[in-house]
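User: Hey, my collaborator sent me this sequence without any context and asked if I could get a structure. I don't really work with proteins. Can you help?
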Amino acid sequence: ERPRPHSNVNLSFKLNAMVDITSQEACYGLCERHCAVESLMFLASVMRQLEPTLAHFIKFRQSATEGLKVFYSTTVDCMAELKDCLWRRVPYVVMPMADIVAQMDKVKWNPKELGAYHNSYIDALQKKFQLLSSLLASLKTRLPDEVSEMILRNAIVYTMEQLVEGFSHAKKCSHEGRAMMSHDLETLCKNLRLVTSIRPIPQHRYVDEYIKAYYMPEQDVPNWVHQHAEYTSEQVLALVRTMCDGQGLKKKQAQALISQVEAILKSTAM
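Assistant: No problem. I've predicted the 3D structure and written it out in structure-token form, which is a compact way to encode the shape of the chain:
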């Protein structure tokens, strides 16, 4: 029996030492990333042009024909999705958010009175976007405008996701605290409109919906959970727990609702 190619092969890849994709001084390798992504897209386009020729040469070998189809469907046809995935990961490097979520964790979300100002983590976020905008401006002659806009858009989406994550960490929350969250969100969006022409602001509704769900009546919760699979189970349960506490539900009543929500989340995850 002929040995199968690549069987039991442990592949290890190492980035060229001359390529820096992690430091601000090297602009996080954004130009190199762009070159790499577009090279992959070019190779995919060449492979698509070659597909009829390759298929012709192996048309009498059924196993090879099937293998070619699998290769194209699992590799070549996935290049656009891979490109999107690679650019979505860039904000994780360019704009780390651990410090922002840590700042949000220190906010008391159950005040009795609503303050006039936004929380300090919003200022920290604004600085991050100002730095990102300056970085992209410095690469204007090396990075296409559409790529710069895509990076900004992905950074905003990532930020909105982290806002929901930070809000979900609140153990207790009052109506005033929820209004504070809304005020922070609108302040951030106002600041974003100053540094980007992207309209509307991506994922604004995603955050706004999570904030305002706190006010919904108890009987509406199960239906809301069914309709909002975009939030994690942990985020949904955190919302329901703070809602039960904020609305003053009795312990047994709250536990029954939480159990019902847990059952829904478990069924939808299957």
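In plain terms: Residues 30-57 form the longest helix (28 residues). You can pass these tokens on to your collaborator as they are.
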